[in-house]
Amino acid sequence: MDFLIINEGFPILSTLVFLPLIGAFVLMFLPGENLQRIWAMLITVATALFSIPLYTRFDMTTAKYQFGEHVSWIPSLNINYTLGIDGISLLLVLLTAFIMPLCVLGSWTYIEKRVKEFMICLLIMETAMLGVFMALDFALFYILWEAMLIPMYLLIAIWGGARKIYASIKFFLYTLAGSVMMLVAIIALYLTNDGSFSIPMMMGQDYPLTFQIWVFLAFFLAFAIKVPMFPFHTWLPAAHVEAPTAGSVVLASILLKMGTYGFLRFCLPITPLATLTLAPIVLWMSIAAIIYGGFTALAQSDMKKLIAYSSVGHMGFVTLGIFFLNQQGLEGAILQMINHGITTGALFLCVGMMYERTHSREIADHSGIAQNVPIFVTFLTIFSLSSLAFPATNSFVGEFLVLAGAFSENKIIAGAAIPGAILAAAYMFRLLQYVLFKGPGRPGLKDLNVREIVTLAPLVFFVFWIGLAPEPFLEVMHTSVDYLLGQVDMAKAGAHIAMAP
User: Name one Pfam family in it (predicted).
Assistant: First the structure.
């Protein structure tokens, strides 16, 4: 267990994982919709506050997993309850903890029926999502990974739009298909590692190249669907359009990141030779996602669909940074995962707030509303500029690092990504042009209230904090990224030695 720094004091990781679950259980017995909303808000805020010491007490000088907890769970199968975080998972845990209160606040008036059940689904999802980013045992990871499916399916199927059944089933089947392939890879690794489910123990092993390629492909399918990468993306627009606002925010801000987190946590350190072998294919798939997502977003008339397809392009930049396998690319990709969660989650909140007023998501129905709702348009403009990676916003830093890492490795592939940045500017400025200038507006349309401003204000704060001073977010990942690249480089060196005469 030399990979894990055991936490001898307060079990902070278990507290974060189980607090929302306990809150969901208590919520089952609470009467009154307002009390149910307040309780869910209190639980998510408490979880966010409990997550802060993870950053303040994090040791940036070590690549070991910190705040570790290890308990034997099912000894006969060597399944353990093992939790820990490193510089790669820390920011994703913090993102999850801080997004969930905003989801509850953004749903305060949007959800009018079955409020208790809706909040229970959100809290159960928070437990599963936090657990996925902390789990260091494959059996525990897989259970939590699958546990996310049910509440997300229910959020879409019960509180979704007109085609909610179609969208929820499509989401469920796509994700389940990927999960089955991931289970096959886990079983193969379990049998190869003397019956161990320990994720860190599986890293750095000298697996044969053929075995690595098959395991990589199984993992890749599961994670590519979750990202989603082109051409595995078709479930995403339907799920986003039909999901309630909080469902869209959770999907965009957290669930999509689990795919790219899987690449970082499993594909690179467990199957490094396969990663090096297949990286060129994944890079061109990323370029296809960037270009396709940009052109398709440009053609949309529905605001939610526009943001959904923009996610395909933005996550393409993340996978591009990951599979160039250098320091700038990886750190830019991790930061861009956080940036996308902040910006795209905020855009979905904005669309949801306006949908409550106009009962329409069509861009044309909101033409010229800037004269009626100036506060709303100010927020929308800030998040739109962030989405297109305008300088001084968070996305600019992440995208710059990804492209810098790309140009240092392959100028042709890096150059092919540039049109994606141009397309992002085109579709976001098209949206702003309609909202700001075109049309007579909508007299009588109410601007954002205090609750909605409070919901969006923290996201604006992070847009500019990361955009102007990103070092606090980058420095926590330096050592872990160095160690991850070292694992890949060792595999590369070993392959060269093996092939030497």
Answer: Oxidored_q5_N
